[in-house]
Amino acid sequence: METLRDSPEVLWGFLLALGVVLLLTPGVGRFARILGVVDEPGDTRRVHTHPVPRLGGIALLLGIFVPALAFLALDGPFRGILLGAAIATTVGAIDDFRGLPWWGKLAGQLGAGSVAIGFGVTVDRFTFPGFGSQELPEWLAGGATLLWVVAIMNMVNFLDGMDGLAAGICAIAGSTFAVIGLSLGAPDAALLAAIVAGACFGFLHHNFYPARIFMGDSGALLLGFLLATLSVEGLVKTAALATLVLPLLVLAIPIIDTSFVVAKRLKYGQPLYTADRTHLHHRFMNIGFSQTRAVTYMYGWCLVLAAAALATRFLPPRPRGDWDLSNSVIAGVIALLALGASVYIAYLLEIIKLANPRLRRREEQARTDADRRIA
Q1: Is the dihedral of CA 234, 240, 244, 249 positive or negative?
Q2: I want to staple 102 with a disulfide (CB 3.0 to 4.6 A). Which of 5, 273, 293, 339 is the partner?
Q3: Distance from C-alpha of 50 to C-alpha of 47, rounded to nearest angstrom
Q4: Peptide bond before 129: cis, by omega within 30 degrees of 0?
Q5: Residue 8 has pLDDT above 50, yes or no
Q6: 269-303 burial string, b = 16+ CB within 10 Å, else e?
C-alpha cells in the first residue's frame, strides 16, 4: 500500500523534471554559444561534424533541483546527495569552460563524493551468498563508497561520446532504480531516481542524433554522481539481494565500457586519463555502424540488462522459501536474453573485426593516432 501511495508523487516528479529540461535546454544552448562553450569537430575521437554547444548539464541540474525541492524531504542523506550533485555539476562546468587537469577534476569528484558520505550515504555492509550480511568498518565503508561514486562518475563521463548515448542509458538506469526503489520501500530514493530519469528523457529530445546540445562534463558528472549515490541509498541499504547484483546489472554498460578501455590503455602503456577511440560506441562505428544504429543497439542491450535486474528483484526463484517454477522459468529466460545480448555485442565488436582485415587496420590506425597525440 505504501508503494502505491508514493507512486503519484514519483510520477509528478518525473513529469516536472521532463518539462523543465525540455523547456530550458534550448536557452542553455544559446547561452553556451554566447560564452563560446562549443565543441568543435576535428578531434579524431569526436564523431560530430558541426559545432555543438556544451553545458547541457546546467539544464539537467535545474530540471532535477526544481522537482527535488518541490517533492523531496531535504534532510539527512538526500540533502548531501543534492549538495554533492551541485558540486559535481560545478566541477564539470568549469571543465567545460576552461578545461581542468585530470587531478583537478578528480579532486572535485572526491569533494562531491565526500559531501554525500558526510551526510550518511555509505555502503556499510555487503551481502555474499552463503556468508550472510557482512558489516564494514566505518573507514572501509566510507572508502568503498567514495571509490564507487568517483568510478561511476568517470564511467558515465567516458560513455558520453555519441549523440544521445549517455542520456539514454542514464534514463533507463534511473527508471529502473525508481521501480526497484518503490518496491523496496525507499520512496525518497525512488522519487529522485524518477526525477533523474525524467530529466534525461527531456534532455534526450535535444541530444539525440543530430544533437543540438551536449551535456558536457557538467551533465555527465552530475548524472554519474546521482546514479552512484542512488544505487547506494536506494538499493544497497534497503535489500540484501541488491547489495551487489542490482547496481551492477543496471550500470553494466558504463562499467564494461570503462573496464575495457582501461585494460586497453594499460596493455598499450597509455595514460588512463587520455582520450581515445577504444570505447564501445567508437568500436561500433569502426565496424560501419551509423550513430543512430550504434546508440539503438546500446539502448537495447541496456534494456535487456535492466529487465534482468527487475527479474532479480521481482521474480526470485524462492519467494517464500519454496521453489516457484514460473518465477524460475521467466527469470531464466530473461537471464538467457541478457547473456545472449552480451555475447552478440561481443561477437559484433570482436569476432567480426578479427574476420575483417580492413576493420583491424582501422582500429590500429586509431590507436596510432592516439599514440601520436600523447607524444
Answers
A1: negative
A2: 273
A3: 10
A4: no
A5: yes
A6: ebeeeeebbbbbbbbbbbbebebeebbebbbebbb
Listed residue (52, 62, 51, 55) closest to 22, CA to CA: 62
Name the domain count of the chain. Answer: 1
Give 194's Cβ-side CA count (13 Å radius). 26
Q: Which three cell numbers stand for residue 375?
A: 607524444
Q: How far apart are CA 195 and CA 192, in angstroms?
A: 5
Name the grid cell of 249: 546489472
> Mean pLDDT throughout 233-257?
76
Predicted local distance difference test score (pLDDT) of residue 370:
47
Overall average pLDDT of the 38-48 stretch: 66
| pLDDT at residue 60 greater than cutoff 60 | yes
Q: Strand runs (DSSP E) across 204-249, as ranges?
A: none
> Which has more confidence, 271 or 55?
55
Neighbours of 76 (CB within 10 A): 13
Cell numbers standing for residue 76 = 539527512
Q: Model-level pTM?
A: 0.86
Q: Which amino acid is at 118?
A: G
Cβ burial, residue 83 (10 Å; 0-12/13-18/19+): middle
Cell numbers found for residue 332: 531464466
Cis ω for the linkage preceding 67 (within 30 of 0):
no
Q: How far apart are CA 214 and CA 164, in angstroms?
A: 9
Sign of CA dihedral 126, 256, 188, 114: positive
Rounded CA-CA distance 345/262 in Å is: 19
Distance from C-alpha of 308 to C-alpha of 360, rounded to nearest angstrom: 33
Cα angle 232, 233, 236; round to 5: 50
Give the Cα separation of 72 and 89 in Å (integer). Answer: 20
Range of the domain at 331: 2-374
Does pLDDT of 239 surpass 80? no
CA atoms of 316 and 318, how far apart (whole Å): 5
Residues 6+ apart with CB under 8 A from 283: 349, 353, 363
What residues contact residue 231 under an 8 Å CB cut-off, 6+ apart? 148, 152, 177, 246, 247, 250, 251
Q: Looking up cell 508523487, which residue turns up?
A: 9
